Amino acid sequence: MKLKPISSDQAPKAVAAYSQAVQCGDLIFLSGQIPLDPASGALVEGDITVQTRRVMDNLHGVLRAAGSDFEHVVKATIYLVDIADFAKANEVYASYFKTEYRPARVTVAVAALPRGASVEIEMLAVPAN
Prior knowledge:
This protein is of the alpha+beta class. The chain has one domain (3-125): CATH 3.30.1330.40. The chain is 21% helix and 28% strand. Helix 2 links the parallel strand 4 and strand 5 (104-109). Helix 1 runs parallel beside helix 2. The model has no long low-confidence stretch (mean pLDDT 96).
């Protein structure tokens, strides 16, 4: 099966050896996004709501580049440095899904994330058409 790398200028450039996303058949694997500003590559300062919003906006850019959207996400994984941030991160995350549909998801607490981020989210999606 042919693999197709996906990239978007609406999300930060990859900072290591990975693609923003890879499509394999009808599956789109989105790499984890941390709250980096796409223009500067700098970590967005702010609380968990600000950081989660930046992550979701980054993922939205990659989804669009892949011909998909949040309504076609089938699985998400959220990594939080502080599990006490769960409710606030969940509220921001949920606001990006405009219908009753919600993808399968897991949320885990981790010891640390790259660049001192408080949140990282990865997704698995299918094309919108």
